[in-house]
Amino acid sequence: MPFDDEKKIKRLKEKEAKLVSRGNKAVDEGRDKRADRILGRAAKVENRIITLEEKGKMAMRNDAIDKLRNLDTDGTGYAKVGPSIIKNK
C-alpha cells in the first residue's frame, strides 16, 4: 500500500507544479480572480500531498511499534528490547 501512495504523491506533485505555473502565468497577465482560483486548487493538492506523506510516516512508525510488541517472549507483557512503556495487549 505505501507503494501506491508513493506513486500518488509523485503524480500529485506534478499536478501541483502545473497548477502553480498556470496560476503564476495568470498573475502575470493580470487575471487575479483566475489566479486566486488556480492557486487555491494548488494549495488543496499540496495539503493532500502532506496528508499522504504523514500517513506514510505514521504507518512506518506503527510497524516499528508492532515489531517491538512482538518481541515479548518472557510473558511479562513488555518487550525485552525497546522502551518499557510499550505494553503488549
Low-confidence spans: pLDDT under 50, at least 5 residues?
Answer: none
Sketch the major β-sheet. none
What Rg is obtained from the alpha carbons, in whole angstroms?
22 Å
Order of helices and strands: HH
Q: Report the strand count.
A: 0
Structural notes for this entry:
- This protein has 89 residues and is mainly α.
- Helix content is 73%, strand content 0%.
- It has two helices and no strands.
- The protein is rod-shaped.
Question: Summed up, what is this model?
Answer:
By secondary structure, the chain is mainly α.
Layout of SSEs?
Blueprint: H1 2-28, H2 32-69
Which features characterize this protein?
single chain, 89 residues, mainly alpha
